[in-house]
Amino acid sequence: MSSGDCCDASDRLLTLTEALAAALRFISPIHETETVALFDAYGRVLAADLPARIDVPPHDNSAMDGFALYWADLKLDTPTRLPVIGDALAGHPYPAAVPVGATVRITTGGVIPDGPDAVVMQEQCLIAPDTGWIELEAQTAARIRRGENIRRRGEDVRAGTVLLPGGLRLRPQDVALAAGQGYAALTVVRQLRVAVASTGDELHPPGVDLPPGAIYESNRYILIGLLRRLGCVVTDLGVLRDEREVMLPVLRDAAATHDVLLTSGGVSVGAADRVKEVIAELGTIQFWRLAVKPGKPVTFGRIGDCLVLGLPGNPVSVMVSFLLFARPLLLRRMATMPAEPLRVRAVADFSFRRKPGRREWLRARLRPDPAQGWLVMIYPTHSSGVLSSLSWADGLIELLEDCTGVAPGDTVDYLPFSGLGVE
Ligand code: AMP
Ligand code: MG
């Protein structure tokens, strides 16, 4: 096996933190961009800072349905009576200046006409539509401030400022902000092309009868679902036999046409674990094995310009190592900055003993407790082959390398799946 520049010289396994730091340094974000219509921009990575073109709102406007008037016209000792000389409805500005001593009816979003410096809510006025007057009690008038209910030009966004930063993964509210500036399309980083392969002679796709000794394949259904949520374009390479001659051409061709190659299985120390060898033969392995549980045999390397992530075979290891290890690397390659996973402090409703040394994640479920706040419990079995535990869980508990165990009532870090992009 060839070794790269971020392998640890000693036998000590890299910690997740060390491995992520080394891998993130090594990854070059993709640069190619494309322009997409706003409705196609959700989840895409903005290619460069997007400047604000106009002030928003573009004019002072009313925050309420009511009457635009001069604050100085309000009387504090006797009712105020003002003639209604016209309308300033949203989209239909009042065409002239309003003289002192008069008011215009205005709706939410209506442009404040020249002159008035306050809007009084309709509900605060005595309105006599047929007479064309409004009246305000002295008590009401006393509570109104100058500038009341006026949204100022540019108070939301100022022209010339950075509206959205490059590298942002666009959420609905970000796309809406761009729409509010009149942008009809956005320049985004092209989608990441990811190829996914499962390996193992025992694996058969769903939909066929199982021969003796075989199992149905499940890892691609985890990985492809997670990748689609990240907005990647996925190529399904199917299930590969544990044979060098089968894997080598498939992985070589996929590496030539994809940004990332993601495999599961075949990276441990078993007699049929060929994936590592094949990656090493086609490219470089930067590191193999991390001080984590589950997911220890994770392999990180490259074939040409293609990043290669060899995940272990057990379905739980696959999902955990994807979320904690592969996901931040994919985000980096997508030209966005991965955020730290959301960690919430919760009270353990379980006990757990362990050997320190590796960082460990337990499948967990959170529930509110009137007395203790957020309580978290774990799945009864810890085997990384038990996929049903992941379906049961709504997140993971993270135990740091030096943790020796958890007792009921201890505070632990809980990572909701939703904070890792899985909902
Ligand atoms: P491996 O790392 O290839 O030794 O696989 C470890 C365990 O995970 C074995 O029990 C495999 O049968 C199982 N496994 C590997 N790949 C998959 C898969 N795609 N779907 C379901 N189970 C798998
Ligand atoms: Mg295998």
From TrEMBL:
Residues 195-332 form the MoaB/Mog domain. One of its GO terms (molecular function) is metal ion binding. GO terms for biological process: Mo-molybdopterin cofactor biosynthetic process. Coiled coil: none annotated. It comes from the Bacteria. Pathway: Cofactor biosynthesis; molybdopterin biosynthesis. PROSITE patterns: MOCF_BIOSYNTHESIS_2. It catalyses: adenylyl-molybdopterin + molybdate = Mo-molybdopterin + AMP + H(+). One of its GO terms (cellular component) is cytosol. InterPro entries: MoaB/Mog-like_dom_sf (IPR036425), MoaB/Mog_dom (IPR001453), MoCF_biosynth_CS (IPR008284), MoeA-like (IPR038987), MoeA_C_domain_IV (IPR005111), MoeA_C_domain_IV_sf (IPR036688), MoeA_linker/N (IPR005110), MoeA_linker/N_sf (IPR036135). The keyword Magnesium applies. Its cofactor is Mg(2+). Catalyzes the insertion of molybdate into adenylated molybdopterin with the concomitant release of AMP. This is Molybdopterin molybdenumtransferase. It comes from Candidatus Contendobacter odensis Run_B_J11.
